[in-house]
Amino acid sequence: QRLRAAFHYTVAGLCEEVGQDTGIQFSKQAVAAITEITFKQ
Amino acid sequence: KGFKKETVNKMLQLHFKDDKTRVSGDAVLLMAEILKVFVREAAARGSRQAQTEDLTQVDVEHVEKVLPQLLLDF
Amino acid sequence: EDWGLTTEEFERWNRLYKIEPGDGIKKPIMPQSHFETLGDEERQTESPAEEVHELSLTEWRLAESPFPDFLVDHSDRCRHFISIMDMIEQMRHEEGDCSYEQKIQPYFHWEDVDI
Questions:
Q1: Does A24 touch chain C (CB under 8 A)?
Q2: What ipTM is given for this predicted complex?
């Protein structure tokens, strides 16, 4: 879970960056989904 | 912003079958970069999906719609 | 008794089921993947002469479930996909706060991330 928490923080930061490029927000659930995809990938 | 090298190393160690397996610094850096590319691509596809639906926020169903192709591509 | 069609079966197939050119059956193709962040420009253009039907990987996603398997298991990648789809299904109707985030937040350590 600790690794997931670290991944989640980093994924949220990267989503925010992409969001700034595209002018689109990410819901918390979308960030969580991308975190879990990355974690398992 | 990116994945911390030590955290990526920890993740890799968790998955090695043999505890004595070591990862070189460059390999950890490369893995961290691959993860970063993967996340940015997932986020960008989610954004694109939301934009095609004229929405200003990416939600789980946009991630759901891009997931199959994303997993096939990586 | 053997694996082939009998003459009668072959004749019936040939008469009722054989697909002829011009039957309007389109060639199913996989959707072309496109990398948003890698700027790949190679886009294969289909030859216009062929009628193609682009398959959708998500159109029926809400109705799909893993097939039972025998001797050949689902791959790790497939199981990974299924677990993420299940997770998304559980979060689909969440508003605002995220249960996943709340579950892992207590484990967060600043030293685990690059600030």
A1: no
A2: 0.86
